[in-house]
Give the backbone structure.
Amino acid sequence: MSNPTADWYPAITQKLEALGHEVVIPAMPGHRHPEAEKWIEIIEREVASNKEVVLVGHSLGTRAIVLFLNQSDANLKQVFLIAPPDIEEHPKRDNAWHTKVDFEKFKQSDITVLASKNDPIVKFEYSRNLARKLGAKFVETDSHGHFAKPSDAEIIFETIK
């Protein structure tokens, strides 16, 4: 499961709540074998229960957000995709992760992609190309790896605040 108390999530929660934002970080099931449909259902539930929504996804969570937006007409304030993986690099994932995305649908959205040049998991060029396909703002760093440490909260906060 994706753990809401791991990595940079607690630090980001604290910083955003200090600015008066409500923060929800749901636990996403199936850490080793996540099912896209279950993750998308959780996103749908959270978006439906809030009026003004900013989605922030990390790693495979970014793909779940893209798939959710691909099938939804939700009106989101902003979307931040941090270290988005190339789903084609993960052929063992269930087929729902490989759903074709209509990138034209995203061109008017306020989306930012954040990637690090030294990410050991995600190819930097994939993130840059994804940003281009989505018509998204692209923010790059040199040395934050896969953004999996509590200390990465600062660069993430500066990007999303």
